[in-house]
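User: Second chain of the day. Same drill as before.
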Amino acid sequence: MTTNPMKLIMVSAMYENGGNTTHRFLDGHPELYVYPFESQLGNSRVQDYMSSLYPLKYRYPEFPLTGSPAEDFELFFDEEWKTCTRSRHVSKFRDADFVADDKERKAIFCDIMKNKPRTRANIVAAFFESTFKAWKNVNRSGKENAYVGYSPVIGFDAEMILNDFPNGHVLHVVRNPWSGYADTIKRPYPLSLQRYTWTWAMLQHHSLVFAKRFPGRYHILRFEDLVADPKKTMGELAKKLGIGTSDALLYPSWNGKKMEQVYPWGTVRIPTSEVNIATMNELSPEQKKEIASISGVILPLLGYDGMLNSKQAA
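Assistant: Same format as last time:
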């Protein structure tokens, strides 16, 4: 196995658990190249025991033993970037101040890979490097030394990511399952309560294991802590990631510009404790009880076991 020295920080989260929000809180940091959208690295080569549960676009990619850089580039799912650059009129980010050409990015990717061993680590590193070379109006500080991507549930693949990138980190964001599910059912085709909660519980179980297997490299951040005290939470995270503190970590931004709401980058529009609790209380008592039943083993391990009995719970 050939590794890559790039400092890659991959953000992971269950659906509607604050992954997009945390990604945006990292956005303006002067030491970070932060991917503009979800960096959906997966492809159709990913086939394993988890394939029936988790969309391939959110998984860590696999590549065939032989192939060309041009073929490898096209294997990345990367729906949000590709839609915005190739068919902007149908992109939910069509109004974003974003200038890039995907054909140019592909050419840069191929140029980066032409003299490098064809390994997964090098291919993924070239994907991120070519992205920021092709993004014309990206806000640069000149101090960047790490790349940040976000792909929901990619925490399941943490071992492969951290093995490929010895200097890398995985940051897993967790939100209480009641608020997460309440936001999920606002989507056109939501998961059922049972499917959502079982998946939530499984992902948190994996994350707790990885946090012990990779201490100092796999980090769990609670969405509730982020919105309650951004300065403390993001300051502690910066130390863990080996980056300096910055006021830019105190609010969500896109390409360095402060966002009044995270939408359409994520379902969570206003990241505050009050909105988070109000979202939880959109559920019926029966829904809350069923979620607690399925996720009950995990809840106390993440500090959520008392939420339903708190004064805030309706």
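The mean pLDDT is 96.

User: Great, on to the next one.
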